[in-house]
Amino acid sequence: MAKNKQLYASGTGQTSRIDALKQAIEKANHFDFDLKGAAMASDAFFPFPDSVEIAGLAGITSVIQPGGSIKDQLSIDYCDAHNLSMIFTGTRHFKH
Question: 2-88: which CATH architecture?
């Protein structure tokens, strides 16, 4: 998560994308960073809209991800309905 050219928090080392996101939000909140208007980037796609929903509720307004899930449209639809921007990079750095 970043805002104003500053990294606010990152969620790393989790097997769950939800846990990683909640960890990052909690860390940003711990340091009193205001996530309203922040961007969130991921090195993996969002196959379900749950992550973008949690991010949006935390104040994040932009999501950057590689895309590539057969369910990308679910996250796109959520972002469109909730005024969140989503950018697809087309490059996945995390592989398993």
Answer: 3-Layer(aba) Sandwich (3.40)
Dihedral in degrees, nearest 10, Cα atoms 83, 89, 93, 96: 70
From residue 95, alpha-carbon distances to 50, 74, 80, 92 in Å are: 21, 22, 28, 7
pLDDT tens-digit map of 59-80: 999 999 999 899 999 999 999 9
Element housing 80 (H / E): helix 72-81
pTM: 0.89
The β-bridge partners of 88 are 65
Yes or no: say if 24 and 54 are a contact pair by the CB < 8 Å rule.
no
Residue pair 88/65 in contact by the 8 Å Cβ criterion: yes
Query: What residue has token string 């080392």?
Result: 13
